[in-house]
């Protein structure tokens, strides 16, 4: 509780002992909170742990030839009284877990992802997961059913690892707004990185409400830009807009249509091999 572990109830334990002559006179007495000296000669070490309301665990060893049910029943009766007394003393010191987990407490976070996206986290040759582990120091284990287990003693590092994994496995949807980075510029538009493995295209006509002759007149590599997902076409390519995030000028008149272009297309054309922009 002091470490901020979100326990529902406090748990305490008590070790119950026994003073007995079961093989002689048959006399016995249950001892609450036995000490080491009583363990061997008495013949019973019966540990009982639980909350104020019930038992959570028991462990018992005995050096007698077994115990009678009367002894077992009396052991539980006395242990309830003792456990509740301990719990009341604990409550006087700290009644509930602290609101924040201690910065020194180990953290384990489980994220459930689509199993088909496991490869996105691992990356080619394990490159992505190695980079993520090196940057955050978080231990990452991935199960085949899509469970991602993260372990760390650093709250900030854990939060960053969770954020990156959520971004890597995120499904981009129309209408969403992203703060991205310009990673490639062509005559027909600029490619913007949305997530670590997903890019989108801002066509030159979607950069601003006014006419833009070339994307390079407005943008350069590395620029941080805010974009909106305009649509995802039937090939899974992400089309973006910048201008729709700004107010349309009063009396706006669309610029005249552009003349047909030759010698290339939006995917590279004669400028080189086709460069799909759905992912990297």
Task: Indicate the topology.
Blueprint: E1 12-20, E2 28-32, H1 36-42, E3 44-50, E4 55-62, H2 69-93, E5 107-112, H3 118-122, H4 127-136, E6 139-142, E7 147-152, H5 155-169, E8 177-186, E9 189-195, E10 198-203, E11 224-232, E12 238-241
Parallel strand pairs: 10-12
Antiparallel strand pairs: 1-2, 1-3, 3-4, 5-7, 6-7, 8-9, 8-11, 9-10, 11-12
Task: Describe this protein's structure.
The chain has 280 residues and is α+β, with helices and mostly antiparallel strands. It is built from 5 helices and 12 strands. It has a 5-stranded mixed β-barrel. It has a 4-stranded antiparallel beta sheet with strand order 2-1-3-4. Mean pLDDT is 86; it is low at 262-276.
Task: Give a count of the beta strands, DSSP E runs of length 2 or more.
Answer: 12
Strands of the widest sheet, in order across it, are 8-9-10-12-11
What share of the residues does DSSP label as strand, in percent? 25-35%
Through-space gap between termini: 45 Å
Give average pLDDT, whole number: 86
CATH architecture of the largest domain: Beta Barrel
